[in-house]
Amino acid sequence: MRLFSACLALCVLAGVPAELPAADPIDIGSRRELLVDDVLIDRLSGDAVQKVQQPEPRDVALVTDRPWEGNTCAYYTIFQDGELYRMYYRGSHWDTEAKRATHREVTCYAESRDGIQWIKPNLGLFEFEGSKENNIVWDGIGTHCFTPFKDENPDAPPEARYKAISSGVPGGKKGLYVFQSADAIHWSLMHDEPVITEGAFDSQNLAFWDPHARLYRCYHRDFRKVRDIKTETSTDFLNWTQPRFLEYGETPLEHLYTNAIRNAPGAPHLLIGFPTRFLPDQGQRVEPTFLSSRDGITFKRWLDPVVPESAPEERSGNRSNYMAWGVLTLPGEPERYSVYATEAYYEGPDSRIRRFTYRADGYVAIETGKTGGELLTKPLRFDGERLRLNAIARDGGHLKVQIEDEQGRPVPGFAFADAVPFTGDSLSESVAWKAGGDVSGLSGKTVRLRIAMHDAKLFAFQFE
Predict the structure, then answer these.
(1) pLDDT of amino acid 170
(2) DSSP state of 240
(3) Cβ count within 10 A of residue 411
(4) Which terminus of the chain is more exposed, N or C, with fewer CB under 10 A?
(5) Torsion of the alpha carbons at 259, 265, 269 and 270, rounded to the nearest 10
């Protein structure tokens, strides 16, 4: 490796194209590729760095101010269902002086037409203090962390179009039970016994249909010296593979509570998540972080928080900064993703959940300053006619793309000297060279992208 690096440096100084080591090309087809890991990155140079991004705080979405809710409401699930957005969460309250719960835990429901203003409908399903006029959607086994989803499996029967998973304790045996619903409101058990029994489960355990892998995935809590995440898969939601811990490479183990893992919107071959890091030696603080995976087991885990304690407001206390499970595109905001995070846990008399927004695909970026730097990809094969970038070039900044062959030589017509600089801000800017932007002649061939950046951010790219 040292010898190769020395030879590479001499070639660069002499202006001679460096002979790059052979590697099997990665076939990306026409997928949108988010720069959330290093799978496609050969190297960064200059002042280029890969950096996790933080979403911008918006308004409070929901306050848990009903008698059956309270200051310890938690484990929010939010998803889009046609023109409706659905939210599920635990209703609970803790008397901080008496150190006891003031009422039983229930599962509550809210809905919205825009993801911003939420209503709590009177469902009339379960009684609380003599009345059924409430938004309690489930009251039985699993109310501690009831986590539903809309099942996009095309083979799912109508009576199980919506599914949920939840811990059976209290109210049942230790393990994860599974539930079904035809309308997302009326729920029943799919099986009388827990279907997953190896784990701790005292957190938001979740499951969903992965349309890319075409199977169900589950992510739940367990311990290996620290609180951590296990996963398993299923083809029928009842029979699951043996649980195994996630793998994080060289990233150190840390306490992780909720995981909020799901397929990335617009890039379902990627799994993304927002695990909550627990810091017991820092006053039991919690903060959401970010991770991503391509196989559901090995994850790139980022250590910087995505919603810091300084985000508004009252999120410095124990359990006061959890991410909800859900990434939404709201009406009138196609360029942004909405995520939600809790605040004011234990503060009372209520707790809250606040909306935050990301730039679309903007979880992680390759960033450069005024010195400038480059991103060189690994060998790729693509299918498409144009290359598009999701990028920002700040005032005075730009990005340029050079397409290289397997030996690291610029493809004629696609060198930096031919490139039209990208400036401004675009979610899907078509890359251009002097002869135009048609790259169809290179489709199916092995190439590398070398992207020169000055005072810019690059979030994603796609051939189409």
Answers:
(1) 74
(2) B
(3) 18
(4) N
(5) -40
SS3 140: coil
Distance (Å, whole) CA 367 – CA 150: 36
Pair of tokens at residue 296: 């559901």
**Mean predicted confidence (pLDDT) in 369-380:** 98
Cβ contact 402:415 at 8 Å = yes
Token pair in block for residue 32: 């949108």
Q: Structure pTM?
A: 0.93
Amino acid, res. 354: R
Measured distance between the N- and C-terminal CA atoms of the chain, rounded to whole angstroms: 36
Task: Tell me the mean pLDDT in the region 290-298.
Answer: 98
pLDDT bin (cut points 50, 70, 90) of residue 17 is very low
Residues in a beta bridge with 27: 381
* 236: nearest Cα among 260, 218, 257: 218
pLDDT of residue 22: 57
Q: What is the DSSP letter of 338?
A: E
Tokens describing residue 127: 């009684």
Q: What does the block give as tokens for 362?
A: 């903007």
The C-alpha atoms of residue 194 and residue 348 are separated, in whole angstroms, by: 34
Q: What's the average model confidence in pLDDT over 425-449?
A: 98
